[in-house]
Fold these 4 entries.
Entry 1:
Amino acid sequence: MHLGGFEQVAAILVVCVASAVVAMLFRQPVLVGLLVAGAVLGPGVLGLVEITEPIELLAEIGIALLLFTVGLKLDVRIVSRLGPVALAVGLAQVALTAALGVVVLLPLGVDRTEAVWLGLALAFSSTVVVVKLLGDRRELDTLHGRLALGILVVQDVVVVIAMVVLTGAAAGGGAPVGELVGIALRGVVLIAVAVLVSRLLAAPALHLLGRQAELLVLGSIAWAVTMGSVSVLLGFSPEVGAFLAGMVLAATPYREAVSGRLTPLRDFLLLFFFIEVGARVDPGLLGSAVGPVVALSLAALIGKPLIVAALLGLAGYRRKVSIATGLTLAQVSEFSLILIALGVSLGVLSDPTSALVTVVALVTIAVSTQLIERTPWLVDRLGPVAGWLERRAPRAAVDDEEEPTPEVVVVGLGRFGTTVVEELLERGTRVLGVDFDPRTVVADRLGIPVVYGDGDDPTLAQHLPLTVARWVVSTVRSHDVNMTLVTALRRGGYTGGIAVASEDPDDCAALTRAGADVTIRPLHVAAGPLLERIGAADRRRGLAP
């Protein structure tokens, strides 16, 4: 049955929802359901969906937005601290994992050239899968999350160089030195563009766009896609440019607001990527490739994590951090599929080889999803028997000092909010301000850190540092905004106190039922001191009743 573009999208969405629900009922991550949905919809089973250019474009934009949101959360200080470790471990891991792939494939009768290509494909891990799962678990900011991200960035650079080298080798001339130098120069140009925009344009542009939340989101998407396009023109993947675009905005107070509002759109577009991966699986080709599929899958799921953990142990990290990082990278990358597709286009590899790698990608992504979901349990079980992974004098579990967190978060910095902040500061309380007016964010008139955020954004609570905050105080008088904020805080597991402003007694009762501990009636609060002063003056004059 042939479906048009619109009908294909409809079929994708319906089957995705059904597969995700089934996965949820069986206590599996939604990601596994999406991969299965792609396999069911693809040419190998129902044949309802073809990998068309529109679907590939949607998938590519989704991946770019994912890397953009990762860049938004990346602190330059972390990059400078973990960069040397990520570079050394990333390069060594690629070489050792590729060698492992060749060693396990040659005894199975795989041609030596194909074994080299497949070994390289095995070496790369999926940036999309890792970032998506760590982001959902809020582990991107952990030490093992940052190490995994650094290694993934190194892998992405290596795969570009590998494509150049293998293309030259397939042509019989090796990798031209001039072309490798050209890659380096183009990389410098791309970084220079990002730095110039960061220094000259980012702050004023965001202050202007921040006056309208819709404009802020639209402008951010335009910036991410533009940098992705520049990256393509310079010979890199769009994901590299989108990642740098996010890093440009990471130092601004708007990063959490942009990230939160982009999340639903990003997740929707990523559906098409997972469908695309699943749809490439052809069950008819599995029978003749069981041996290589099993060998490569075990190498990715067991061999690669051991290699990563051992290298990090040599670098001085504790065994729990090393094991967690290794488990995070236990899958085959989407770039592996691109690498093998290049080999097919050059005539070096056959279509069955491409199908083999696609199956390995599906298997390892599905299994590694379970490994990442169960990382704490696995680390606790493996840690006691993995003492050999740890040096006698390992690094601390956390490489950077934690920044102080606020005791009270005040949402809304108008006149009433400013008064609340001033009273808290007089008492020596650490305060974080949240406001949707960019002029308030950059004014620094209160002497406290202020982040850009809107109380009616359901994702705002996810981006606030609430680990030790005792209270969240909303001085916004909109009932809808306060109801959204209170509901999001309680559903997100926040157990501290919540105080909200409202003038209507019925609204106060509804907010209390939703989870607010204190409701404030600002006009009454303001009138109280005035009436007390009037009463005191009357008593002095002998007029008090």
Entry 2:
Amino acid sequence: MSEQANLHPERKPNRLVKENSPYLRQHAYNPVDWYPWGPEALEVARAENKPILLSIGYSACHWCHVMERESFEDEAIARLINENFVPIKVDREERPDLDQIYMDAVQMLTGHGGWPLTVFLTPDCKPFFGGTYFPPEDRRGMIGFPRVLKAIADAYHNRQPDVQQNVERLTQAIAALGNYKVQDGEMKRGLALAGAKALARSYDWVNGGIGRAPKFPNAFAFSLFLRVYVAEREPSFAEMVRDTLLKMARGGIYDQLGGGFHRYSVDERWLVPHFEKMLYDNALLARLYLEAGCALNEPEFIRIGRETLDYVIREMSSEEGGFFSSQDADSEGEEGRFFLWTPSDLLSVLGPELTPLVMRFFDVTEEGNFEGRNVLHRTIDPADAARLFNKSPEEFNLSLEAARRLLFQAREGRVKPGRDEKIIAAWNAMMISAFAQGYRTLGDERFLRSATRAVEFVRTRLWDGKSLRRVYKDGVARFNAYVEDYALMVSALIDLYEASMEREYLGFARELAEVLIQRFVDRENGGFFFTSDDHEQLITRVKSAFDGSTPSGNSAAAMALLRLYWYAHDERYMSEAEKTLRLFAPFMEKQPFAFSHMLEAVDLFERGATEVVIVAEANDRQKREWLNCLGQLYVPNRAIITVEPHSNADPLMPAIVAGKKQVGGRITAFVCREHTCSAPITSLEEFKATLQAV
């Protein structure tokens, strides 16, 4: 039974009680007569000629919970909604197609967006007014929700010409957003480097990161910087990556006890986070830290990557193999309560000897840094702290680790934030990629097991041999998968192949790529639609182009097909990827911040892949040593192929493998660029040196 049911045992549940989404079920005992999105709600709106109140949010959204408590739990506001509207609740993580369309509408109306998303629609689902969070009464310049509801109801019934004018203007503008046209001529060379340089102009040289508060991790921007640094050897890009990743790892945005990253920082210094933890942030950041650790020779980054993956195994992994979506910011009705500490808390757990050490290292004060309590963060290096406490570095680190263990164990006894146990295809794909990278970098078998179990989960629970499903929960897979689900899963399967060298994963990747090309491609203009050609018909069929906290469908598709091309050499993959990049090239030039992952795909398109062929017997123990060496180097544009000395031709392997033989019966590698391969390499030292030179 939901928390609302416990608070209001006299209330009957609304229709959301039958939904699987934890976010929708959180609203099942609201006095609002919620419908889920579907034919029933839309038919009622048409039959009764009522406007639709569409409310979109997600389980870990703090302000969604606030608006629920203030407005959707209020009997008077609920009565106003029920009498004048058909109220529909949508979980944006289940239905990003709806979220994309109606977020675009609100951004056009107000100049900004966010969640909760509050949109008013005609019975045929066309938007005419909207916003985000509305307070329950007029407050600090914001109009109260009851006043908004009354004004919208009056306008709909008494000022139809005004409503219709808004409808037509917004509907046309939303449709135009996806009406991209490929430009004539070749794509400008050096676009990835130019985009990275433009992004760098917004770098915060004081605090790290891009722009000012609130500050998001922007994993793709720094992944792009890392690529450019390695290719161009411009030290400023390495400095921006190193500085930002260090400041994030030492800030409050990183969970100093349990590992893993919170959603974003409300300040410029990475100190106070919005405390929710999202699977996709931790997938992208774990991978970025591991890659940056290899590229920049930073052991601390490798440690942060490992701790983040450990957090996901501990907190976000289902028994069936998939990964859960998120953890809330709130617990016991308070934002961040689970993660906060006072000096007296520390003393009760650590005693008088360890408490001063921890207070200094994690900057814990009586005043606190968040509502009288403390977000743990680091302002001093361990070596400096050791000197302050007259300890050797080894003694200090042992004391610190003992204190961390004690604090973590004590924290485990607190009421944990709620967890959204939906398993989402695209987010699981990003996490599979992160675990594959974790295994390649660290050789930890747990990480390989997590990745392979998750792929098996996808294959048996979300894939029916013809189509993917978007969401799984409580034994039920629902909703057509979107372009991002297919594309990111293709890349995840390539990553898992590169970690395991099991070719079945390339075969599955090609199956999904076929669906991607057959059901999502815009054959007239290029690029990929958000939804498949057999999806529910909405007011428009959009193309997602802008990279945010997750990659857009078009960025993910371009990257996936380019990567797969270097294994399969199927010209369709290269052709559709190139069309996509050309389609958005003018926008990448003007707005590189919105296309940081697509610029990574441009980098691969412009430079091509480094193809690494390793010829070794299947049971040669040295082969894993060579693969581990490769995994500990940063080679972003790569294709890795292992073949046995006397194997028959494999249709899944590219032509460059042909003729590659062992020298003297020893494991032999070839490093190939632009159809030219190195001489045979038979020593591990030479292999490493050749890769570093490339």
Entry 3:
Amino acid sequence: MNKILVIRLGAIGDVILTSAPLLNLKISFPEAEISLLTRAYLTRLAEMFSGVDKVLPFPQKASALDLFRMGEHLDKQNFDMVVDLHGNIRSFYLMKHISASVKVSYDKRTFERFKAIKLNKIDNKAPHTIDLYNTAIKEAGGKIYTRRPVLDLPFNRPRQLSFKNSKKTIVIAPGASYPTKRWPKKKFADLAIKIYKEYGCNIVLALTRSDADFAGLIAQIPAENKALFLDTDLVKLAAVFSEADLIVCNDSALGHLGSAVGTPVAAIFGPTHPTLGFAPRGCRDIVIEPDVYCRPCSKHGKKPCFRDEQFCFTLISVDSVMGKISGILTVKNKEERAIFIDRDGTLIKEKNFLSNPDEVELEENSIEALKIAKEAGYKIIVVSNQSGVARGYFDEETVSRINQRVYDLFVQGGVEIDQFLYCPHLKNAKLPPYNIECNCRKPAPGMVEKAIEQFNINPFKSFVIGDKLADVKLGFVVGSKSILVRTGYGQKQEKMLQKTMSPCPEKVLNNLFEAVKYITGALDREEL
């Protein structure tokens, strides 16, 4: 495939969710140029998707003639593949109009969603919309690595928040696309005040003009402990959200934006329901919802409530929301940062399926590198593909003995590695127990997500360092910045990278020591 077109015209939250399948497409077809057709007002946001090479704007109010002209224009681009992730009349027309050898559409689960809304047939194991998108990617011949939205924010970007204290920062976003999807504004205000009074947290308000009066409802919170962002563009709001510790919102696009920058989201669902596939998908996101028989009453929550009061919201109290988010508010420590380091060829010398602990040899200055990282406050997590187990070259006990040897050498040097994680699997390999398509073999995120849970790590504030493109891709999959080093297989991989259209790492450096110094700011970046 040389050129791939993905169609997802709107809305904001749905487009953010396409960041995952687009990245899967890019990793699966690294030599292809991938274009995303979306609404014009979303182009700047879509440019932050790692899987997109070009963003093609679609008019907000397109006439039939505009649609025809767009079809003619796209047909002349000679796309090899078209992936429809929208599934409406406009995208159907464009799919038919464009000549391409491969055309796939995603399954919207129309019948299942109808049963949930009209017959109250709730499937708590229903696939998420990202999973449905990914099914289309798989049908097109792609592989699935990421199942979470992810935006690529610039490294060392300017800070958006300037609170002078070190308290946690909570974003309150009371808006939603329809009034029927909004938890009462007064409850949001009472929640903000309660969070401030009980925990001293800083409060950030993400408001639209229609909710501008909300700021007055929390006047008792001191000015130095709150910040207001009114009708802020999505790119800037993404940066704001990335600096927060929690986002409390309705079932809205802002929940997906928070997930895509790695900040935990607590989303209040009233007339809508996660069974429809639109719940926030971050590692630590939660949905706050009532148990009422009439949910969901419509797909997007637009339908007016037929009952005397909107119980799906009135039954959700401020105290119940506080109870759900108290774990984040009460934990003393903020999220950890980590450096996820490949083992063979990065941390230690590459020995081609190393099986003898006595042959372990550290990369030059690797002990000094980890000392610098530790002093800067990073957890050190070693993540390694060990397909030699699946190939029958050695067993898992051998991997553990080598890891122990590596650990001991670094301890002797005065630095402790926090965790060793490895993947022993390889599809179509020799040994049946390991002959599987797993979720832990890099660039799949399984090992990183295990470390996230164990150490409360925010991957979006972390780094991946390795000598292979799988390590670079892993960084993009989990939302971390990645650095390719030239030790091990790094020089060959750098040449391969230059021949593809794969997302580029943050930096290509000579070794682990240089990489860590770059991360911690000890190297002059202009000289590298």
Entry 4:
Amino acid sequence: MKAKHVILMSSIVILSACHGGTKIVYPVTEKDGTVDTYFGVEVADPYRWLENDTSQATAAWVEAENAVTAGYLSDIPFRERIKQRLTNLTNYERIGSPSKKNGKYYYFKNDGLQNQSVLYVKESLDGEASVVLDPNTLSDDGTVALSGTSFSNDGKYLAYTISRSGSDWREIYVIDLLTGRHLGDHIQWAKFGGASWQGEGFYYSAYDAPEAGKEFSNVNESHKIYYHKLGAPQADDALTFYNPREPKRFYSAGVSEDERVMFIYESGAGSGNNLFIKDLTKPDAKVTALTDDMEYTYSPIEVIGDKIFILTNYGAPRYRIMTAGVSAPLLKDWKELVPESESVIGNAQIIGGKLIMTYEKDASHHAYVYTAEGVLEHEIALPTLGSVSFSGDKDDKETFYTFTSFTYPATVFRYDIDANVSELYLKPDVAFNPEEYTTEQVFYPSKDGARIPMFLTYKKGLQKNGTNPALLYGYGGFNISLSPSFSVNRLVFIENGGIYAQANLRGGSEYGEEWHQAGTKMNKQNVFDDFIAAAEYLIAEKYTSAAKLAVNGGSNGGLLVGATVNQRPELFKVAVPQVGVMDMLRYHTFTIGWNWASDYGTSADSREMFEYLRAYSPLHNIKSGGAPYPAILVTTADHDDRVVPAHSFKYAATLQAADTGDAPKLIRIETKAGHGSGKPISKVIDEAADIYAFIMYNLDMNPR
């Protein structure tokens, strides 16, 4: 980066943002002369220098932007009231579903406002609890987060992974569960996986140490699987698997509960993964490739005897269960156990010798019990439309599940598989009355006639008169489904008369692989059309109006918000794109961005793909001098090494330089935080208070 930028940025004078009609004065962001050429077409990238996230000039720009944003937000008269209400709502005891290991029960609990949840153990369900690991002691500000745990199969050890400041980089430590003592083992530069135990050690995936100063922006290459023996230094770890022919792909290992078989997963090209197997009972056994297509998902569930149970969409877009033999594991020899049905299989586990299957029906979960021979026994009755997750191992005689929905906080049930009986185990006490709210599911037509589901949650007694404030949320990508979930953050909006709308757009997994593919690459516009149609439906049905409608989405959902605002700015009053993918021409050049090509394609693929991406890229389609844009609050974080903050930096700078009307165009840049995972409660509350204050202020709401 040229030195002149440092001089120019250091001379910027920050003017406090004013309200009541006075125009906000933004920092002046310098432009350089960067121009890229794609298939003979020149595309300017004047804020390229903001991609250098470690430069003094970028740091000065971040400080200047945060000062303007903080000034605006601090002037919102009810911002502190919202923060206090969020704090009160968040301050309730949250207990996770217990997991039984070596006869003991392990579970996570948060007293309410602890930055990170604490891992406890009990000898029995009604016994005394003791702390196994308190992540709050790992840092003073809660920015060191516990990101994963893995118990050794004999119950002697716990390997746990941590993330610092929200980064995807992981470190692994080990606790002796008999003594509670931390061992000296310490693994660095691990990524995209945890520890998978075998014997007195574990497998993990890691990269070589990155270049200093480029840890959060450079492309990651040469992912390797190692075996770490307890007590040995990381430098002595055995390289178990490495594919130099595909340096950008991801590789992770999983070991069956009986430690007989290791599975290796290869991903990062295509919509699925490849699967490899190694017989761990034979010291000289080679790694055998079971698949070679990368277009389908192959997920081993468990190994029982010589039989491998596998969840896959190979030959079944809505998934099926197949079996393979450890002695004859090749794909050509697999046999179907549970066939594909009209609903999508979202998850499958073997607990107590039975298959616990979770299906998605119109974006809501339904759970069933099958025998190990694939025979349906019964459905598990769930409280309402919602989402469920089970915990348990293949030999457990009891299991627990957690159920949640929009107004149903995560509640733990104990389940008797044979009797098909659920009993309440733990129910949280949240400071709101769920009986005052209702959730309905509607279906609306998209531009091409596709039938799209959407959940609406609001206070009972709502009048459909077009005056209600509404918040529309979406994602639409990467085969990810948006099922019902509980969030205290939304309650602040809903309890003040707002409608929360969650649209299940194409690109997700709600209706299987066909639904996913209908929102990828040259079909990506379908996702934006689905979201725009959701807004039009809410307005046409008089739930709300354009003057009362806000939109929000994160990551791929941030791209969704940015693209739809460019295409239909008059349709929305407020927009909050969070950690969004905003530069569709260069996304694949950062960290793991290349891995998203299966959904997006890249600007290097072909002239046609380049033109398609450029036509909707949020950064490249901001319209100056046209219809006024809504009030926009962009959010990102300095340690986001998944969707690097340069996306949001360049997008915000372009917005502020364009003539898009007088509504605010602000960016909030969190420090010591990443893409979102592991963020301490204190930062979660602060960010939510800023976002909802911004939304409600610009929707002319007056919250209690």
